[in-house]
Amino acid sequence: MENCISMNGGEGPNSYSKNSKLQKEGLDKAKVFISESIAEILEIQKDLQVFTIADYGCSTGPNAFSSVETIIQAVQHKYKTHCPELKIPEFLVFFNDHVTNDFNTLFRTLPPGRQYVATGVPGSFHGSLFPKSSINLMDSAFSLHWLSQVPQEVTEEGSKMWNKGRISYPRSSNQIIEAFRAQFFSDMKAFIKERSEELSPGGLLVMLIPGRPDGTHPSECRSVHICECLSDTLADMVKEGLMSEDLADSFNLPFFFPSASEVKEVIRCNSHLNIERVDEVHYGVNPSSPGYIESCKMHLRAGLEGILCKHFGPNLIDDIFDRYPEKLEDFFKTQSSTYLGKTDKLLLLVLRNNAS
């Protein structure tokens, strides 16, 4: 599953580069949080010659570049205001994503005049990527809701947790929801373990995770319902004989939108990282705004086309997304969509390595 969770590459009309405005909105809202966290929490190392930054889940770059720029400006400001006698170190940035990521587009579109040396690191962030204590500041935005795999039991016919007729969990049983939650806990635990070893003493890990407010059920998140509308599209195509029922039933999306409490529960199991700051911001566009349905369709296509293409084949992709807007419009006409629109939250967390 990991090898196909990559956003659409290139710079064409269906690319992630052209269809990641929602992520950009969230990052813009988080800039002050990130800058303040660096100013207040980051420990300055006096003899540091090179300040290393790792971005986990960079995709093709536009939003990752913005995050890196925010981080570097904040670090430079901290040196100037807290340690003006020290020379500001050079910056080395590692851009990480899956091996199938379009790193060519990322490097071709690197910002001119950037203040850092850039390199790519392909591989899953659920595993080890860097030497121990080698990274000064880690950043992951809009990536950690992706799972390393779909829980196996939800795709097995005959299983008590078989997710027949659905591609995710908002309209499924509590048993199925718990399977997705358990997979998230397992993956998040692996991510935190590896980052705690790679983070330098006094370094920071900044995480921006799309999720939902504390006290809400996992099904109470508009983002996952928007994705689930695709299952209604697939059901119509099965009825019309365009794909087999077995093919549709065997497909599930590997993600889970957590609450802040769920994320903190995982982190507290790791003794090497301290939770320093936590915040939540609402993000998302009003469905009544002009062009929202089309924008939502393009956003989903940029993120899910690779997974859909691998499972259903390339010939059905245009048909799937041509049909999808009608299902999305039906969802936004429901009473629940108004409430769910208030539940999309961007979870902001800053962790520090407690070894000094």
UniProtKB/TrEMBL annotation:
Example of a GO biological process term: methylation
User: Which UniProt keywords are listed?
Assistant: Magnesium, Metal-binding, Methyltransferase, Transferase
One Pfam family it belongs to? Methyltransf_7
The cofactors required by this protein are: Mg(2+)
Record keyword S-adenosyl-L-methionine present: no
GO molecular-function term, one example from the UniProt record = metal ion binding
InterPro entries named among the record's database cross-references: MeTrfase_7, MeTrfase_capping, SAM-dependent_MTases_sf
Q: Which domain of life is it from?
A: Eukaryota
Pathway involvement of the protein, from the record: Alkaloid biosynthesis
Write out the ranges of the annotated region (Disordered): 1-20
User: Chloroplast as a keyword?
Assistant: no
Q: Which family does it belong to?
A: Belongs to the methyltransferase superfamily. Type-7 methyltransferase family.
Among PANTHER family, the record links this protein to: S-ADENOSYL-L-METHIONINE:CARBOXYL METHYLTRANSFERASE FAMILY PROTEIN
Q: What is this protein called?
A: S-adenosylmethionine-dependent methyltransferase At5g38100
